[in-house]
Amino acid sequence: MNNALVRFRIIAWIVGVLLVVLTVGTVLKYAADEETIVAFVGPAHGFLYMAYLVLAADLARRAKFKLGFTLLVLLAGTVPFLSFVAERVVTRRVQSARPLVGSAV
Fold it and tell me: What is the C-alpha separation between 79 and 65, in angstroms, rounded?
């Protein structure tokens, strides 16, 4: 499950950064009639968001997340800055569920 968590963390950060850039680009598009950022970052974010969905669903299945929590994590890639929060919450949840290596039982 460690590999699934690492993959999710990486894609969550990438999608989060692209969404913030896309948000700035959207403001520039309507405020300054500058469409370059949206033209390039929009499709990249859309494609990588689909990868985010797949990797988040894979991690949710492996970690046995409840459906409601899984849906919130999946939607986090659509709200600026929320994928960063989701990444931290998911990481804490997965790491707290994993037994410590070498711990006395």
Answer: 21
What is the pLDDT at residue 101? 55
Residue partners of 90: CB distance under 8 A and separation at least 6 = 5, 8, 12, 56, 59, 63, 73
- Rounded CA-CA distance 56/42 in Å is 20
Q: Which amino acid is present at 50?
A: M
Nearest to 37 by CA among 52, 16, 15, 19: 19
| pLDDT, averaged across the chain | 92
Number of C-alpha atoms within 13 angstroms, CB side, residue 43? 4
C-alpha 7/C-alpha 100 separation (Å) is 21
The predicted-structure confidence for 65-77, as pLDDT tens digits, reads as follows 999 999 999 999 9
Predicted TM-score (pTM) of this structure: 0.87
